[in-house]
Amino acid sequence: MSFRALPVYVVAVCAVLGANAPSIASIPSCAIGVKGVSKSSYDFATSTVLHVPGGIDTLTVKVPVASTVQRTGWSQTITGASVTSVPSANSVADTTDAVGNTFKVLTFDHPKWGNISVSLKISTTTVADLAPTIPRVGFPLKNVSDEAKAYIKPSKLVESDDPTLSALSARLVSGATDESWAVNNIAMWVFSRMNYSMQAPRLLDARTAYKTKTARCKGYANLFIALARAAGIPARSVNGYTFDTDMDIPTSPDGSKSMTITLYDTAHTWLEVWFPGAGWMPYDPQMTSGWVDTHHILANVTPPGDEEHRLLSWVYYGDLTGAMSFDETQKTANVVDSLGIRYASGNATTDHVLLARSTDQMTSAGTSTSDALPVDFGRKRR
After folding, report:
1. Which end of the chain has the lower number of beta carbons within 10 A, N or C?
2. Domain 3-361 of CATH type 3.10.620.30
3. How do the domains of the chain map onto residue ranges?
């Protein structure tokens, strides 16, 4: 089995990508190569205030507790974690689900009308490698692990068997002989064709996201996953948080030019793609085409077929006198960034840039005007 490094490029589009899209063997003249490893350490806290009506006999709140994880090109090391509530819960238990997510389960007996505040605090160090090395894997995939096979099937929100999505997926991966080549084409299409909107439904299915070209983070992830699964590529969504600190990426040799990645304090969903011999690799098509930065906090992995999986959830018993509602806030402190991102090669002058993995592997996505690879990769903001 051969191995290859996945380079990351900041790409400034200098020509229409279509029939003349660069092949796997070439790097576009408009690409700026960047390399390095980024590391961030910080303390993160999220607080959810549940507005509790009267009439509840028992309220159970399930809080995902971020764990130490190791992914290809990305890792998260949790050095401290705690869950508290005001008022205190009558009982607190630890539980782990079938895919390894860990939770604190808080039970409140006969809670009074009013507010219950539940807080999660974690300390973490996150590392992202801009050029992880993975095995070169032939495409279509032939040997898929049992764990990964569960993430190829269609589901309620990921309609990978939809004829329109299947046809688009086939065009995007046409000619790809390497899995990363196929995945990058899907990533580039979703990143550049979709538009973020808070007016979009929170739990948007892939088919609707494709039709409207508008979504929130879950819609982005579901569409990417559907296109990947339609091509036989295992993919799954993950949930967590981002926080409000900008990251500057150099795009010139002397560092005088750069692009800025801007995040916000918010709950967030992105995804992971499975590679034989390398395991799961994160992608966030709402932010960039192929790199998940160190200001992402992974809280839980979506179980197979359950894209409606949430972060904090609750179950209650009793005769309610009103509706349950909630407010959520996040706060980050003691942020220490070591952004070892360095310019490597290339020369571009435009402000329209894209941070992407293996852009030299771009290929033509077909002839349809609406489904062709994009010609303008503008910077994305949350």
Report:
1. N
2. yes
3. 3-361
